[in-house]
Every structure is written in structure tokens, then in C-alpha cells.
Design goal:
Elements (H helix, E strand, L loop, with lengths): L2 H17 L14 E13 L7 E14 L3 E4 L2 E9 L2 E10 L19 E10 L8 E14 L2 E19 L5 E12 L1 H8 L18 E15 L4 E11 L15 E15 L7
Antiparallel strand pairs: 1-2, 1-12, 2-3, 3-4, 4-5, 5-6, 6-7, 7-8, 8-9, 9-10, 10-11, 11-12
């Protein structure tokens, strides 16, 4: 997932994070309950699943991290942890896809722009997989919502499974290496938004096409988090490869590449930390 989407997720659920404050006693984590600072960076990303054309976004905004008993927003993203027992958690997961300007995609020339899609739904996570504290298995079922101006439309459902590894890498400082392999399915309504070509928009080289549900793609992500200035400034470097050779709609004229990538650089600079501790 790209940097801008993660930031948008945080902004959408920010009110919920404050509503959850005070739902329990102070936590036992070494990290603060609240953390405020600046978050910025740049991302080069594939315009949509299966697109060989790329866009670039840069951003600098304030951030709020909250490590509550239920709602949490931190470097791992924004989520709601509703239930936890030993190595299992049940909560809410979030995802999405950045919108695309008409001028950015030559294959979609003359077609409507792609707006922001925001996904939310239940997520199950299994920690300590195979008794490895750094290994995690996850499953999520999300409802996709399309933001078109001030209106919100339903845009189908997605199912995703993932295997994640997060491990300290302290050869050149207190760095953290993390990687994730994920497999995503999507229903017809979701895939229709990216791959259907209505007859009104058909032209030579872009014939009419009707999308179907099924496999969306496989994603491999690798990243490194490197702190400097005694941990006040956190650098983040990441790369994502998306593989679409098994995609249900690889025959769509809008599906032009089986392999795409995203490049990410981000930084976080802390300005304030609460004295009270957060929850693990």
C-alpha cells in the first residue's frame, strides 16, 4: 500500500481515535499513548492495478499517533483492535487506491478519472506464527467505498490474505526491516471500476470489455525503517512489486502490465509525546 493512502486513512478515522481515549487504564507499552509530529515523503506508484503508467505524489502534513486499547493509529497504519486473545486479534482493517487524473493515463484517455477508493472491514491476525514472534498471518474482508466529490458510493468487496515478517536490523543502528506477501481477491463491482470499457468509450486499441470478479493480484512489499537524531527523526524506505499474471481481468485493454512497482520514501519527525503510556 502507498504512502498517501496511509495518510488518508489516518485523516478519515481521526475522530474515532479521540473517541476511544479513556476506554481503559493507562497501558503498559514503552511507547506514548499520544504522539504528535510532522509526516512527509514522496511516492511513485502505478496508477491502478495492472497499469504500466505511473504517478508521483509528495506530501507534508501533521500526524497524530494514538495507541489505545481498541483504536490505534501508528507506523503500522490505522486500525481497530476489537478483541484479542493470546496470539490472535480481531479488529478492523483499512485499505484503498489513490485516484488518477485523466491526464496521467494515456490508455484511459477520454474515460472518466479514477477517484479515491477507501476500504474498511473486519481483519483477523495471528501473531507468533510457527512460534516465530516476528511472523504474522492476516485475513481481511473489506467493503470498498468510492469518494466522488462529497458523495460516497459502494464499490464492492475485497478479500485479502497476507504473511508478514518484521525484524530488527541493528547492524547500522536501530533499524527495523519488514516485508509482506499478500494475495487479493475482488468482486465484479470492484474490478469493474478499473477494467470495464463501456461501448461508449471503445476505440481502436481499446475495445469494449466487461470486467468480472476473481483474483486481483499478488503483492510483495519490503521496507526499512531507520531512525536518526536519537529517534526523533524516522526515515522510511519501501518498494512494492505487484504481480498480475493470475488476474481475472488480464485480458482487459486497460490491463497493460503483469508486473508493476511502487517506490516510497517517508519521514516522521516527532514534536510531542504524552507522559501516559499506550497499549501493546
Amino acid at each position: 500500500m502507498s504512502l498517501l493512502v496511509k495518510i488518508l486513512k489516518t485523516l478519515v478515522v481521526l475522530p474515532l481515535l479521540f473517541m476511544s481515549h479513556g476506554q481503559g487504564k493507562e497501558g503498559t507499552s514503552k511507547k506514548p499513548l499520544f504522539e504528535v509530529g510532522l509526516f512527509g515523503g514522496a511516492v511513485q506508484y502505478s496508477l491502478y492495478p495492472g497499469s504500466g503508467e505511473y504517478g508521483t505524489r509528495t506530501l507534508l502534513i501533521p500526524y497524530v499517533f494514538y495507541r489505545g486499547k481498541i483504536f490505534r493509529s501508528d507506523r503500522r497504519g490505522t486500525r481497530a483492535r476489537i478483541y484479542r486473545k493470546e496470539d490472535w486479534t480481531f479488529g478492523l482493517g483499512f485499505g484503498g487506491n489513490i485516484g488518477t487524473r485523466a491526464s496521467e493515463s494515456s490508455i484511459r484517455e477520454g474515460m472518466p478519472e479514477l477517484d479515491l477508493i477507501f476500504e474498511i472491514g473486519p481483519r483477523i491476525r495471528k501473531f507468533n506464527l510457527f512460534k516465530n514472534k516476528n511472523l504474522e498471518l492476516g485475513f481481511s474482508l473489506k467493503k470498498a467505498n468510492l469518494f466522488k466529490g462529497i458523495k460516497i458510493y459502494s464499490q464492492g468487496y475485497t478479500f485479502q490474505s497476507s504473511l508478514s515478517l518484521r525484524k530488527p536490523f541493528e547492524k547500522w543502528g536501530k533499524n527495523i526491516f519488514f516485508t509482506r506477501l499478500s494475495f487479493k481477491l475482488a468482486d465484479e463491482l470492484y474490478q469493474d471500476y478499473f477494467y470495464t470499457v463501456p461501448k461508449a468509450y471503445a476505440r481502436p486499441g481499446r475495445p469494449a470489455y466487461k470486467a468480472k470478479g476473481g483474483v486481483l493480484g499478488i503483492r510483495y512489499f519490503a521496507g526499512l525503517q531507520k531512525p536518526i537524531f536519537k529517534g526523533k527523526w524516522i526515515n522510511f524506505f519501501g518498494i512494492t512489486f505487484q504481480e498480475y499474471s493470475l488476474a481475472a481481468n488480464k485480458n482487459s485493454p486497460l490491463h497493460t502490465h503483469d508486473l508493476t512497482y511502487n517506490l516510497i520514501y517517508g519521514f516522521r519527525f516527532g514534536l510531542y509525546e504524552s507522559k501516559s503510556r499506550g497499549y501493546e
